[in-house]
């Protein structure tokens, strides 16, 4: 577990996700404003289960508040093949540097695991974020209807 101060001065703790986080992470994914409208079907039935948390390196950003901390965002790093599978920041917490903290932590975890690159297939509205976070566009992931009926930008983080 590591503590950092967010760019807005509030303490944020990054910790490994545990099984009891599964419902909160699922709610964060399904409630994401980035998946409103035409994108809603992509996450409507999505579930981050305890089995997923156990199988991958899932880390959560928790902010201190009067309720003892709430999940502000999370990411999931898959080691083989190396991929940033999920990265979400709560709508109300966006623009505060939490996404950048999660990316920096992911890169550190990837380095520690001996990886030199991590691929990410971006959701279209997140394309600008990944570019600003230092990822390089490497291609396009083609649509996979009915789950994902649109092409998506594919990026790569170089972490060595």
Automatic annotation (TrEMBL):
Residues 12-160 form the N-acetyltransferase domain. Its EC number is 2.3.-.-. It is an enzyme of class 2 (transferase). GO terms for molecular function: acyltransferase activity. Keywords: Acyltransferase, Transferase. This is GNAT family N-acetyltransferase. It comes from Streptomyces iakyrus. The lineage of its organism: Bacteria, Bacillati, Actinomycetota, Actinomycetes, Kitasatosporales.
């Amino acid at each position: 577990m590591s503590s950092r101060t967010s760019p807005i001065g509030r303490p944020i703790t990054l910790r490994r996700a545990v099984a009891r986080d599964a419902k909160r992470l699922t709610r964060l994914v399904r409630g994401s404003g980035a998946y409103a409208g035409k994108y809603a079907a992509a996450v409507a039935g999505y579930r981050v289960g305890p089995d997923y948390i156990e199988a991958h390196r899932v880390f959560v950003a928790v902010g201190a508040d009067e309720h003892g901390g709430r999940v502000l965002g999370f990411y999931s790093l898959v080691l083989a093949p190396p991929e940033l599978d999920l990265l979400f920041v709560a709508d109300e917490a966006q623009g505060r540097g939490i996404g950048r903290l999660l990316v920096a932590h992911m890169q550190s975890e990837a380095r520690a695991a001996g990886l030199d690159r991590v691929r990410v297939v971006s959701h279209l509205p997140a394309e600008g974020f990944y570019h600003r976070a230092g990822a390089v566009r490497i291609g396009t992931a083609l649509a996979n209807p009915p789950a994902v009926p649109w092409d998506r930008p594919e990026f790569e983080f170089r972490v060595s």
